[in-house]
Design brief:
The protein is mainly alpha-helical and about 260 residues long. It has helices spanning about 1-40, 40-50, 65-70, 75-85, 100-115, 135-145, 150-155, 165-170, 175-180, 180-195, 195-210, 215, 230-235; strands at about 60-65, 90-95, 120-125, 235-240, 245-250. A hairpin with a 5-residue loop joins strand 4 (about 235-240) and strand 5 (about 245-250).
Length: about 260
């Protein structure tokens, strides 16, 4: 009996110790993945500057929309152009690739409520092919955007998703181990196919990570003309608006 009791009393703390070790390993793994994420996942890098509130200084003008806004609207250039006309304004860019209406709502709501300088004007661009479908929302925003508790609740109330999915979105977007699962599979296949190409891929992501922070270009990210040709972003028409100032219509809005 004494031997049995001694053995039994030994197993309990061993199980607790194993559980604590497992939890600590899981937490540590997620912490390391969060630190490394911006250097191997470009989507995480783009979204993290929204999640970490590096945009919190805000500005008088908010640029909002998809990738054409993200890489086509330069806050510093806008500020300089306005200054030449005697108008002192500040601008910042919260456009992101594939942005659709629900997330334009979330992003603008954050800026309007939490930025130090709250926007007085919003410049918006949405490409027609993003007005429907959910692929971008599932692949980017539901995976990398960390909603607040109230945003997750709103997504349920507004029927953007079921309440169960909203709860999972809130939890999973805070778990890098879940967040990077798709990217990890892609990297594994890429490594088996062409190991040397990963270094080039990492280098490009690192460069993007360096310029995507708001302290560099206020949210603007240049990706060259691989997605937008020079002729597409040349000013096409200048038209006097209802408010003081001018509205620039770009050629791609006519396509």
């Amino acid at each position: 009996m004494q031997s049995s009791s001694s053995t039994s009393s030994f197993r309990v703390p061993l199980s607790v110790s194993a559980l604590l070790t497992l939890v600590a390993t899981f937490v540590g793994l997620n912490f390391l993945l969060a630190l490394a994420g911006p250097y191997f996942d470009s989507n995480y890098s783009l979204m993290e500057s929204i999640n970490n509130e590096s945009w919190a200084d805000g500005g008088d003008v908010l640029f909002l929309g998809d990738s054409r806004g993200n890489q086509g609207l330069v806050p510093t250039v806008y500020e300089e152009a306005m200054a030449e006309r005697g108008i002192q304004v500040s601008a910042f860019n919260m456009s992101r690739p594939g942005m659709q209406i629900p997330f334009a709502y979330y992003f603008s709501k954050r800026a309007m409520e939490d930025a130090k300088i709250k926007p007085k004007s919003v410049v918006v661009n949405f490409s027609f092919y993003l007005l429907g479908g959910q692929q971008w929302m599932k692949s980017i925003y539901f995976a990398y955007y960390r909603p607040s508790a109230s945003e997750a609740y709103q997504s349920c109330v507004m029927r953007l998703m079921t309440c169960a999915d909203a709860s999972r979105w809130y939890v999973r977007s805070r778990l890098p181990a879940w967040m990077f699962r798709t990217r990890a599979n892609v990297l594994a296949r890429q490594f088996l196919r062409a190991p040397s190409s990963i270094l080039k891929d990492f280098s490009g992501i690192y460069q993007q990570q360096q310029v995507s922070d708001f302290s560099v270009a206020k949210g603007y990210v240049s990706r060259g003309f691989g997605h937008i040709e020079p002729k597409d972003v040349a000013p096409q028409v200048y038209k006097k608006g209802l408010e003081v100032g001018y509205t620039v219509y770009l050629r791609y809005l006519e396509l």
